[in-house]
Amino acid sequence: MTAPLSTLRGIPFAKMTGSGNDFVFFDGRDVPLERVTSPEVIQSICNRHNGIGADGIVVLEPARPEADVRIHYFNSDGTPADLCGNATLCSTSMSAMLGLAADSGMTLTTPAGLIASRVGDGLPEIDLQPVSGIRPAMPIDLVVGEERIGFAIAGIPHLVILCADADAVDVEGRGPLLRRHQASGPAGANVNWVSPMVGGQWRYRTFERGVEGETLACGTGAVATAVLLTAWGLVAPSTVAMRTSSGRDLEVRLTATESGFRPTLRGEGRVVFRGVIDSI
Predict the structure, then answer these.
(1) Which domains does the chain carry?
(2) Which residue among 59, 180, 207, 263 is least enclosed by CB atoms within 10 Å?
(3) pTM given for the model
């Protein structure tokens, strides 16, 4: 049964950001999952004009003995997602703050599998499942400024486009067409554009499915992009620095395995403010 918006009054929350990718967090020990996860409720909470405003919502709850914490993540349109990299970075920080797990090391369970994570030197980092389905070339027509298109599944599917200048891309115009391209499968994919920066860093931008627009950062997008840059021979399989649209950096460390690469993602997971819902 869908919870009415009136039942949200009095619910405590925390607003968090991962390099500008922002989320509303709820402690599942105090807030029942069904109370805040209907599409209508999520869309109202995430509305940036009449709600709190966010790219998605997260509910954390104990998950022993399977793991320390279970992450429930939903996009701002109300759809559940198997994984969100920045939400998982934020979940690592929040799980330690809530006493659900030790900041020195924890296990998080998601629909995309188990994730080991920790907080070190003030920043969370997460060990993701190996990236799969890597395709360095995709049967998708390029437009002016685009050089090549690849595909990878980093928890969720991603298209990665090497381009001359990511800042010059019309993300809102080009993104919807590629996000639903049939070559990406029936569920579509996030779409990332990447270009080189001076000093060895890479600038990337993401059109994110479920948000249906550009987000300021995408953790799994950074991972997929680093893997494709490695597959294209443009970077060594080590640590790749990715500059987000918020101006903050995400670090992707790739460890070679027999089946491909196992990524570790490190970046921001910061509480912006805490509050109590009054009326939405």
Answers:
(1) 5-119+268-276 (3.10.310.10), 132-258 (3.10.310.10)
(2) 180
(3) 0.92
- Residue 18 marked as a ligand binder: no
Is 219 assigned a ligand-binding role in the annotation?
Answer: yes
DSSP the chain: -PPPGGGGTT-EEEEEEETTEEEEEEETTTS-HHHH-SHHHHHHHH-TTTS---SEEEEEEE-TTT-SEEEEEEETTS-B-S--HHHHHHHHHHHHHTTSSBTTBEEEEETTEEEEEEEETTEEEEEPPPPEEEES--S----TTEEEEEEEESSSEEEEEEES-GGG--HHHHHHHHHT-GGG-TT--EEEEEEE-TTS-EEEEEEETTTTEEES--HHHHHHHHHHHHHTTSS-SSEEEEE-TTS-EEEEEEEEETTEEEEEEE---EEEEEEE----
- Residue 75 marked ligand-binding: yes
Q: What is the pLDDT of residue 4?
A: 64
* Choice among 46, 84, 90, 163 that is catalytic: 84
- In the residue annotation, 84 being an active-site residue is answered as yes
Flag whether 50 is marked binding: no
253 annotated binding-site participant? no
The one catalytic residue in 46, 90, 163, 218 is 218
Would residue 218 show up in a list of annotated catalytic residues for this protein?
yes
Average pLDDT of span 208-215 = 95
Determine what percent of the chain is predicted with pLDDT higher than 90: 90
Q: Any idea which residue has 């320390």 for tokens? A: 68
